[in-house]
Amino acid sequence: MQSPRAVVIGGGIGGLTAAAALHHQGWAVTVLERTAALEPVGAGIALAANALRALDTFGAGDAARALSGWQADGGLRLPGGRWLSRTSNEAAARRFGEPVVVTHRADLVALLASRLPEDAVRTGSPAALADPGGPARPARVTTPAGDLEADLVVAADGIHSATRALLFPGHPAPHYAGFTVWRVVVPRPSEPFPAHETWGRGTTWGTVPLHDGRVYAYAQAVTPAGGRSPDGELEELRRRFGSWHHPVPAILAAADPSAVLRNDVHHITTALPAYHRGRVALLGDAAHPMAPNLGQGGCQAVEDGAVLGLLLAGGADDLPRALPAYTAQRLPRTMEVVRRSARIARLVSLSAPPAVALRTAAFTVVNRLGPRVVLRGHDGIADWHPPVHPYASRTKARTREAL
After folding, report:
1. Pairing outcome for strands 203-209 and 195-199
2. Would you call 361 exposed, middle or buried from its count of C-beta atoms within 10 A (0-12, 13-18, 19+)?
3. CA distance 384 to 224
């Protein structure tokens, strides 16, 4: 039997997940990545229980669990060091069935790429959708090396997706969420510390250990869009966060100025009409860019890719049913996560002293009720399980006939 063919536009975490999930189901997959190498944007990623279960659908979950670096207590703090709430990875595992795995994005990208044939990923290959295809014709993608036809195109081309704009030209573009983020990875300080996120006035700092002896740190501040520090982003971080509690000063002292990443945050809070059109499926940030405050942007992209693979386990013949099912399953869920992330972003971004004082008082009360109250904010998200493929019995029968 000739394998059905899929072309994936974008070699980020979502695109590679979709490619690995489809390859696992017998699809011939080509990933087109415009950059010269698979260099993930960002430094760290938190894989919650829902993402780990999604990775399990094509056999990558245990390898991802092995990347875990944080297995201890953590929580929410104030810049002076006072704890507002405490939780632990053990409590998360009890509530959601899995701990949170925090790893470097490069390690996750390498893991996903390892699930694909060597020639599946083409770097230095910008691509554009030329024809979304239809019931009687394949989709077509244009590349510098020539056009590619496919039974399915997966558009994982990021927040400012050209594919999304082509398929839904009247839909609102991503808009600035009102804050920017910085990210950096440094060697772990000699003095130990618990993982934490610290909320100031319109500012946030987070620090989480990685499995390889390094630390992933991120910061957030309410700033005008498009800003850049005249003397470098590390100096900007030192001005904003240099007086905060340990280990923030130690991390800033150890950081390489050239390794600090700065990105404005954009999101779309108005749902697309669908996550598919013709033979094209939108995935990850191309479908539902969100604020990072629930740590679910990458997790939802991983879910997208896994669900797409499960729905297309029967091959290209399942496309007329599978793509509408993909939209039906993924659009309501991901938009709920988008909206919840936006609400948390507004809470984090408070800067007026009365509002910040009220926020602090509320978390002080919550802390007295224990870690389960803090984790409750992830109910309905981290407890997700992959769907059972509705055509599994028919797929097995088809396989037996082919043999």
Report:
1. antiparallel
2. exposed
3. 36
Q: How far is CA 10 from CA 24, 38, 157, 276, 355, in A?
A: 19, 10, 5, 16, 41
Peptide bond into 138 cis (omega under 30): no
HSE-CB for 170 with a 13 A CA cutoff: 2
Scan for tokens 């926020």, then name that residue: 359
Q: State the DSSP H helix or E strand holding residue 335, giving kind and residue range, or none if neither.
A: helix 319-348
Structure tokens belonging to residue 402: 């082919």
Average pLDDT, the chain: 91
* Contacts with 83 (C-beta within 8 Å, 6 or more apart), sequence order: 75, 76, 77, 367
> pLDDT at position 90, please?
84
CB 145 within 8 A of CB 273: no
What is the DSSP track for 173-206? PPEEEEEEEEEEEEEPPSS---EEEEE-SSEEEE
Single-letter code of the amino acid located at 307: V
Domain map (residue ranges) of the chain: 5-74+96-174+268-348+388-402
Q: Provide the strand spans (E) within 224-304.
A: 261-267, 276-277, 280-282
Q: Give the residue among 274, 287, 267, 284 at the shortest CA–CA distance from 340.
A: 267
Select from 28, 103, 40, 44 the least CA-distant residue to 312.
Answer: 28
Q: DSSP readout, 79-122?
A: TTS-EEEEEEHHHHHHHHSSPPEEEEHHHHHHHHHTTS-TTSEE
Alpha carbon 87 to chain centroid, angstroms: 22
Fold of the CATH domain 5-74+96-174+268-348+388-402: FAD/NAD(P)-binding domain (3.50.50)
Q: What's the pLDDT tens digit per position in 202-224?
A: 999 999 988 888 999 999 999 99
110-121 residue pLDDT tens: 999 999 999 999
